[in-house]
From TrEMBL, chain A:
It comes from the Eukaryota. NCBIfam families: MenG_MenH_UbiE. CDD domains: AdoMet_MTases. This is COQ5 protein. Methyltransferase required for the conversion of 2-decaprenyl-6-methoxy-1,4-benzoquinol (DDMQH2) to 2-decaprenyl-3-methyl-6-methoxy-1,4-benzoquinol (DMQH2). Keywords: Methyltransferase, S-adenosyl-L-methionine, Transferase, Ubiquinone biosynthesis. The keyword Transferase applies. The keyword Transmembrane does not apply. HAMAP family: MenG_UbiE_methyltr. It comes from Rhagologus leucostigma. It holds the Pfam family Ubie_methyltran. Component of a multi-subunit COQ enzyme complex, composed of at least COQ3, COQ4, COQ5, COQ6, COQ7 and COQ9. Interacts with PYURF; the interaction is direct, stabilizes COQ5 protein and associates PYURF with COQ enzyme complex. GO terms for biological process: methylation.
Automatic annotation (TrEMBL), chain B:
Residues 1-34 are annotated as: Disordered. It holds the Pfam family Coq4. This is 4-hydroxy-3-methoxy-5-polyprenylbenzoate decarboxylase. The keyword Transmembrane does not apply. One of its GO terms (biological process) is ubiquinone biosynthetic process.
């Protein structure tokens, strides 16, 4: 290969240059965007929803939180965040109402107009994705589901985020970091844009240590998932890439080390579904 | 900057990933577009594509996949029929492709009415179809058989012309019955059997009483339609070709 083209790396099981990898991955997500959600449900039999719910519960955001959801494409994490802080906020307001002797007339007035007055408590989520098609699908979904407040969409690269330092309370990347070509840069960027005290959360496919389960998981991944891709989305190759890229991604401990290398403290991980998926967490101090 | 995480080695950690998969999969590609598949994958594809094709009739790609994954007996059969016939053998050797870029549409339009070329182009225009929309094969694990199924797909529009059937649901079902008898491809049989599900009762009646019996009789009587080098017979009148092949005149 031409040396000037750059170092070689993996795109699934193929060996490619960095530039080629970025391009191929862009094309994969361009191709899958419209059927992304359907395929997620089919491949995981809906379990991906539970994983994302667990991530949100782990985050436990309070109203007023500023979240950056990177590789947030079709908005799954962002919508959950909005739902979560809305319900926390609602409970806050209800608690206040119960002790109404502590409320001013202004506050009582406000509580009757919940929809218009700060139902998110100033919480905000910025969805950042490198792929236009995925963002497009996300925006359409938001419109369809009625999400508008506290939500913004930004086209950007996880390796080089278009945000200032020390901006966000929480940074999430769900099923996205696997597709980043320079994971170390993405982690550094995550560190940079988080406020001191901010939290890094990563939800990603990981390594199954149980040998029997691992074999079943491999069998399912390689035999069933590309078939699902072909039948549902007419796209075998993107889903072949998906299962291969999962195998190429660092396992739990290695990812933990990488996160620590970026400067995060109290780095920890939690396995979900026997390690099929893991949530890694770290803090910027 | 920092050292890059080393991803240059396919991971063998879980034992089943990495090099083994690379050997099994990508690099037995027999022709451009070929995706090698295991027997289990083929079975799953066959089942999945059958269901999806019924559920969403606009998924022509699913019909194609069904044909490829179930054709393991019929395709070699067809190939042998071609091999043992002088014209068919010729086709296997030269591997002609029917594509808009290779067809001289202007010349075909200039041919007399009733000739194969003129009627074929008329069929394409009337029904607003093109031979270029045929799916290339992906899941056939033999390069010659991949050509055979490709040829079958490209010749499909000529079947419509010879049988005088339009591309609506009814016409397609009739052609499928004919092709089912001619080729024995399970996909044709399934298409012929399940296609009518979406037709109105009136059409079903016509189908059952006139069209299907005619299609079957013609299919049985006719010699193998893949053994005709259509590209060398554009001038031949359709009726004469029908007679030569043994296709009875349409009702």
């Amino acid at each position: 290969r031409d040396l000037a083209a750059g170092p070689e790396m993996q795109f699934g099981f193929q060996t490619v240059t960095e530039e080629e990898r970025r391009e191929k991955i862009y094309q994969v997500f361009e191709s899958v965007a419209k059927k992304y959600d359907v395929m997620n449900d089919s491949m995981t039999l809906g379990i991906h929803r539970v994983w994302k719910d667990i991530l949100m519960h782990k985050m436990n955001p309070s109203p007023g939180t500023l979240l950056l959801d990177v590789a947030g494409g079709t908005g799954d994490i962002a919508f959950r965040f909005i739902n979560y802080v809305s319900s926390v906020r609602e409970r806050q307001l209800q608690r206040k109402l119960k002790h109404h002797q502590n409320l001013s007339w202004q506050e009582i007035f406000e509580s009757y107009q919940k929809d218009k007055f700060n139902s998110l408590g100033d919480s905000q989520v910025v969805v950042c994705d490198i792929n236009r098609e995925m963002l497009k699908v996300g925006k359409q979904k938001a419109q369809h589901l009625g999400y508008s407040e506290g939500l913004s969409w930004v086209l950007g690269n996880a390796e080089e985020l278009p945000f200032d330092n020390d901006k966000f309370d929480v940074y999430t990347i769900a099923f996205g970091i696997r597709n980043v070509t320079r994971i170390d840069l993405a982690l550094q960027e995550a560190y940079r844009v988080l406020k001191p005290g901010g939290r890094f959360l990563c939800l990603e496919f990981s390594h199954v240590s149980n040998p029997l389960l691992s074999r079943l998981y491999d069998l399912y991944s390689f035999q069933v998932i590309p078939v699902l891709g072909e039948v549902i989305a007419g796209d075998w190759k993107s889903y072949q890439y998906l299962v291969e890229s999962i195998r190429q991604f660092p396992p739990q401990e290695e990812l933990k080390a990488m996160i620590e290398d970026a400067g995060f403290f109290k780095v920890d991980y939690e396995n979900l579904s026997f390690g099929i998926v893991a949530i890694h967490s770290g803090f910027k101090l | 900057g920092r050292a890059r995480p080393s991803h240059s080695e396919p991971r063998g950690r879980d034992g089943r990933g990495g090099k083994k998969k690379e050997e099994e999969k990508g690099w037995h590609q027999l022709y451009p577009g070929h995706i090698p598949t295991s027997p289990l994958q083929k079975a799953l594809l066959a089942a999945g594509s059958a269901v999806m094709a019924l559920y969403d009739p606009y998924r022509h790609d699913m019909v194609a996949v069904l044909g490829e994954t179930t054709g393991c007996l019929a395709l070699p059969n067809l190939r042998d029929k071609m091999k043992n016939h002088p014209e068919g053998y010729h086709i296997l050797q030269e591997r002609p492709r029917i594509r808009l870029s290779t067809l001289d549409v202007a010349r075909l339009q200039g041919l007399p009415d009733g000739s194969l070329g003129r009627e074929y182009v008329r069929f394409l225009e009337d029904n607003k179809v093109s031979p270029d929309t045929r799916m290339p094969p992906k899941f056939v694990d033999d390069e010659e058989l991949a050509y055979v199924i490709q040829r079958y797909r490209e010749v499909h529009d000529l079947m419509h012309t010879l049988l005088g059937m339009p591309t609506n649901m009814l016409g397609e079902v009739v052609v499928k019955w004919f092709e089912a008898v001619q080729t024995g491809l399970p996909m044709c049989v399934l298409g012929a059997a399940f296609g009518p599900v979406r037709l109105s009762t009136r059409k079903l009646q016509v189908l059952a009483t006139e069209l299907v019996p005619w299609a079957i009789r013609s299919g049985v009587n006719a010699s193998c339609v893949l053994n005709v080098y259509y590209e060398q017979r554009w001038e031949q009148p359709v009726e004469s070709l029908r007679e030569e092949l043994g296709i009875f005149p349409p009702p």
